[in-house]
Specification:
Elements: H1 4-7, H2 28-37, H3 45-55, H4 64-137, E1 154-158, E2 168-170, E3 173-175, H5 177-197, E4 202-207, H6 218-223, H7 225-248, E5 252-257, H8 273-276, H9 280-295, E6 300-302, E7 309-314, E8 317-322, H10 332-344, E9 351-354, E10 361-362, E11 366-368, H11 377-382, E12 390-397, E13 400-407, H12 420-426
Parallel strand pairs: 1-4, 4-5, 5-6, 8-9, 9-11
Antiparallel strand pairs: 1-12, 2-3, 7-8, 10-11, 12-13
Helix pairs in contact: 2-3, 3-4, 4-7, 4-9, 5-7, 7-9
Length: 445
């Protein structure tokens, strides 16, 4: 029987080799499999032909030499076809890889361009606000700095975890920009009242992070970049009033700020100064620095604003200032471990402060402040932790560090910093906007 499929591969005027006048269709796939994969026959076409010839009992159907030549002819063609397929697959894979690389690069560029555009608009809004506030401050009149030789020591104000754009609406805790302005104003008043009674000379304001929450999602950043710029400016405006109030009380002020985790603008949580400085804490404090330097107000000095941790000398003592993501201020043993880490690098630490946990914890060698926010749905429902709003301040005199925690939970009836006009200008949300009119069915007995 003649194999029609094989014969038709030749032209009409060209006769197939005589050894092709045999039906190899039942043997060609087997021959290729044996040639490629059989460990004993692999690579030897003659041995493959012998194996099939005797295994299939072809002695009476075709001479071995004829069968060998025909099978060899088929194997050469199939091997060539397979090599061609392999090369085509390689080319296709290379082409697909190139397409994938181009697609990824285009996607990365699009996302980079979107972020760059958003941040560019953010920066433009901030620069306008810096200029406006700086010019306005040139016209204010402040009391002269205190120069009494009988004054000594320093007061330390530690604003931390303001979370300025957070909204809380619990039965026992409300928080928005208005509440922040009241709690912050009351806190500063308590600090200044004590500083005056202790006859202190200078004040350090040590900001320990999370001044603002960030959304950290690209689409939300793009859709709300203007609002984010305005919310940042609103928090900066409240802090600015606190700085001016302390300065107007006659104190020289040194301001240092470290970076928090919730206020980072990126998705990932970096731990280096360079990585974490992409942070709303830095944007807020650097803006304040520019505004106050532009205003030419004397008696206000800025230290570092872009560090995860910083060491500050106050009244002869070295303070470690951190947002404290590693929770060194949670236990004395952890505080001692943090002090030891610096000691190994030749830096003596006398005291450390932090925040982050939103719960007051004061020890001999460390102090953790609570937050301006107090309890929220996450802390209560997810962590099962009750909490109160509060902030710490410190009296440093004669080598002693007195640690005071201020309860800021109930500020009803207390006048806060100016925020109403700014709320209207920035169209910021408040707890009152969360209220809806509801009809409640009551059964009265």
């Amino acid at each position: 029987m003649v194999n029609v499929n094989i014969i038709t591969q030749y032209s009409i005027n060209e006769s197939p080799p005589h050894f092709m006048n045999f039906d190899y269709s039942d043997y060609k796939e087997l021959a290729l499999e044996l040639y490629l994969n059989d460990p004993q026959l692999q690579g030897n076409k003659t041995d493959v032909a012998k194996y099939i010839y005797h295994k299939q009992g072809l002695l009476e159907s075709i001479e071995f030499e004829t069968f060998r030549r025909g099978l060899n002819h088929i194997l050469n063609k199939k091997i060539a076809d397979q090599d061609l397929i392999i090369e085509n697959v390689k080319l296709a894979k290379g082409k697909q890889k190139g397409q994938d690389i181009n697609r990824i690069e285009r996607k990365s560029f699009r996302e980079y361009a979107r972020v760059e555009n958003a941040l560019s608009e953010f920066a433009k809004a901030q620069l306008e606000i810096y200029k406006e506030h700086g010019e306005a401050l040139k016209n204010i009149k402040l009391k002269p700095l205190k120069r009494s030789l009988t004054m000594s020591g320093a007061g330390v104000i530690q604003p931390t975890d303001l979370h300025g754009n957070e909204l809380v609406d619990l039965p026992h805790n409300k928080y928005d920009f208005n509440v922040l302005a009241k709690r912050y104003k009351f806190y500063i008043s308590q600090c200044l009242e004590d500083f005056k009674s202790k006859n202190l000379k200078k004040v350090a304001m040590l900001f320990t992070g999370d001044l603002l929450n960030s959304d950290r999602r690209l689409d939300e950043l793009l859709n709300a970049s203007t609002n984010r710029a305005k919310a940042t400016s609103l928090v900066r405006y409240i802090i600015l009033q606190s700085i001016l109030e302390v300065r107007n009380a006659g104190y020289e002020i040194t301001i240092v700020s470290v970076l928090g985790n919730e206020s980072r603008s990126g998705k990932e949580m970096p731990f280096s100064n360079e990585g974490l400085s992409d942070n709303y804490d830095f944007i807020i404090m650097d803006g304040l620095k520019q505004i106050l330097e532009h205003s030419k107000i004397k008696g206000i000095t800025f230290g570092s604003l872009d560090k995860v941790e910083e060491v500050v000398e106050i009244d002869g003592k070295n303070w470690l200032v951190a947002h404290d993501i590693s929770k060194m201020t949670s236990q004395q043993s952890k505080a001692q471990s943090g002090i030891g880490r610096y000691s190994l690098n030749g830096i003596k630490i006398d005291f450390m402060i932090g925040g982050h946990i939103h719960s007051t914890n004061i020890n001999d060698f460390s102090a953790r402040s609570s937050s301006m926010v107090g309890a929220n749905s996450y802390s209560e429902n997810a962590l099962n932790l009750a909490g109160k709003a509060g902030q710490n301040y410190f009296i440093c005199k004669g080598g002693r560090i007195n640690k005071i925690a201020v309860d800021l939970q109930d500020v009803e009836g207390i006048e806060g910093y100016d925020v109403i006009h700014q709320l209207e200008a920035y169209n910021a949300k408040s707890v009152s906007k969360l209220d809806t009119n509801r009809t409640i069915f009551k059964v009265v007995i």
